[in-house]
Structure formats: C-alpha cells, structure tokens
Amino acid sequence: MKTTVLSIVGARPQFIKLFPLSREVRKHFDEKIIHTGQHFDPEMSDTFFRELGIPEPDINLGINQGGHGDQTGRMLISLEKQMTQLQPDLVIVFGDTNTTLAGALAAAKLHIPTVHVEAGLRSFNRTMPEEINRVVSDHTADHLFAPTQSAIDNLAHEGLQDRTHHTGDIMVDASRAIAHKARQKSSIFTELDLDGSYMLMTLHRPYNVDDTEKLSLIFRKLGEVDHTIVFPIHPRTRKMVDHHRITIPGNIRLIRPLGYLDFTSMLVHAEKIITDSGGIQKEAYIHKKPCLTVRPETEWTETVTDGWNRLIQPGDDNFTGEIRSFRPHTPQSDIFGRDVARTMVEVIKNHILTKEKK
Ligand code: UD1
Ligand code: UDP
Known about the structure:
The strands form 2 sheets. The protein has a 7-stranded parallel beta sheet with strand order 3-2-1-4-5-6-7, sandwiched between helices. Strands 10-9-8-11-12-13 form a 6-stranded parallel beta sheet, with helices on both faces. The chain is α/β, with parallel strands linked by helices. It is 47% helix and 15% strand. Helix 4 packs parallel to helix 5 (129-140). Uridine-diphosphate-N-acetylglucosamine binds at residues 11-13, 38-41, 44, 64-65, 96-98, 129-130, 204, 234-236.
C-alpha cells in the first residue's frame, strides 16, 4: 500500500508553501489535504488553490474566528478525529499559525510521525502568538525542516539537533515557479491603472494593527513618504481601518488582497517593499527588492545582516527617512537554498519513512 501523507494548512502563507511541496509529494506518495478553514475569504484561500493548481482539500474543517484557545482547541478536536479516521503515515505542518500548532499537537498525541516545515525560526518575542506556536510545534514534531542556518542554530540551542534537517526554504520553489509569469506585468497594473514608480506594502501583525493609535501613526508617517504606496490590505487590518474609521493618506492606495501571481508581479516591479510579513521579507530578498520591515525584530535575521532588509518602527525619528533612502548595495548570499521540495521529499523517503518503519 502506498504511503499516505497528510498535509495540514489553513492560512494564506501555508497555501503558498503547500503549492510546490504538494506537487513533489504526489510524485511519490498519496497525499491528503486538510484545510482547517482559518482563512476563509475567497481572496485569502480559494484563489490560491485555483490559481496555483493546488488539489482541492479533501476536508475543510471550517474553523475560524474566536480567541486563540477557542480556535486552536476546536482545530485540535477536529483534527484528532480526522487523523484517527485517515490513519496517515506522516503529517506535514507548515509555519507558525494556530493551524500549525493544532496539527502538530494532534499528530503527536496519536503517535503519527510529523514534519514541521519552516522549523527553528525564533523572534525571541513571546508576545507574538507565532513565537509560541513555533516553539511548541518544534518541540512537538518529530522531524524539523529548517530553512536557514540561524534556524539550525536555534534548534541546536534548544537541544533539537537530532530531529533537524537543513532543507532550505520551500518559498524559494514557490517564488521560482511563478517568477517567469510574474516578471511580465500581470493585468493588475491595468486594473489599478498603475503607471510609474510605487512601493508595495502589507501589514497584519497584531502589534502593528490591533492598536488604533499605532496603526494611525503608521499611516500618518507613511503619508509623509512622498511616493505612491500600494497596500493590498489583510482582512484583519481592513476590519480595524473600517471599524475605527482610520484616515488613509492620499498617497496610499488600499486594494483587496491579491492572488499570488498578481502580488508577485507587483513585488518584482515595486521600488521597495514595506511589510511586517514573514513570507514577504523572504520574497523581497529572493527577488532582490529593498525591504523595510515594520517590526522591532525579525526571525529572518540573515536578510538583515546581508543588508537587504532594514527594521523600522513608527516611533523612530527617521522612519520616513529610512523608507525614502534605503538602498541596499551589498551582494546577496545563498540564505534559503534551492530545489527545496525535492530535498524535502528525499529526506522523507530516505531518512524519515525508513526510520519510522524500523
Ligand atoms: C494568521 C496567523 C499569522 C499569519 C497570518 C497570515 C495565527 C495566530 N496567526 O494571522 O501567523 O502571519 O495568518 O496572513 O495563526 N479574517 C477574515 N477573512 C479571512 C481571514 C481572516 O475576515 O479570510 C479575519 C478573521 O476573522 C479575524 C482576523 O481576520 O478576525 C484575523 O484572522 P486570524 O486567522 O485569526 O489571524 P491572522 O491575523 O490572519
Ligand atoms: N501574498 C499574496 N497576496 C497578498 C499579500 C501577500 O499572495 O495580497 C502572499 C505573499 O506573496 C507571501 C504570503 O502571501 O507569499 C505571505 O502571507 P502573509 O503575509 O499573510 O503571512 P506571513 O508570511 O506573515 O505569515
């Protein structure tokens, strides 16, 4: 009987990570996909499955909203039931969301071998929900796929070196798969009637957007940047802007969240990127775009030490100055690896499944 691999996803960045890995996994194994339902707007979920040709999830749990405990708890209960029925040989979880945590925990309690893709990232900021999710998922999963050297070092520091595999970052494969199409300007430019230079922005971290005063300050400061800033707005941020009627300066164009092709096309043609997203810091580096990260720290430390990513905070005197003047000129190094999906599947075949069968 063919080995069954269960991939568990729920949030936008996980669909993008699943896209190249699923294609490779399906060359060797039966794959089942569970979508927890954490992200549910068509433009945050369905668009990615359709556009990237990701197979429809076998099951969608439809779990979203609620506080962290409520959301994660409901996922845990449902995932345990589904895993008990499906009896997968291996579970794969991705990144650092509540979906990741619930998936890793449910599988561990059922003694199903589990891979954590994007293991070992640490911001060392425990007020971030993602930091708690990462630490618990890493200590729960059996096999840790680390994207970078700093991730490997973090795992070793926590005594997890024996479970660690240096695979590279799966987003390299996702970016590469879409790069050719994205370099030709997608129809989003016509749709937005956008001609000329612009910066591309995303913001969704609770510590930037859940505090009205901070979010208003960020917008005010960005209003002082004398440049068009296109902002595909995350539903979390949209809710805050609408609910608190936050003033949006004239140079900022709020648009709906974009599909991966449109977003990557906008990224590769942008002058600079302003973000608090984990994935977009990496994509900016991969596509050689200057990145200004609105955060006090980052897990993607190599992008900063390489000189292509700069951390900025709205309270900084030089916030707008940094945005205007940041121009990296240092050469890039090979932070994220290449041919990552293939490497991951080789590790699963040659190390994980053989070991689990002993
Ligand atoms: C989640 C992840 C975060 C990740 C982000 C990617 C957790 C704790 N956080 O944050 O790590 O960076 O996804 O985008 O798992 N909403 C909608 N429609 C949607 C999706 C969300 O309206 O399609 C609303 C939710 O109802 C909620 C808010 O946006 O009110 C936040 O959604 P949630 O999934 O809880 O967290 P994110 O901020 O999206
Ligand atoms: N992204 C997208 N459309 C958008 C904004 C982002 O396709 O409008 C993609 C982006 O290219 C990246 C991923 O979504 O691959 C990042 O997701 P997000 O910022 O939501 O989460 P994070 O990476 O911070 O967890």
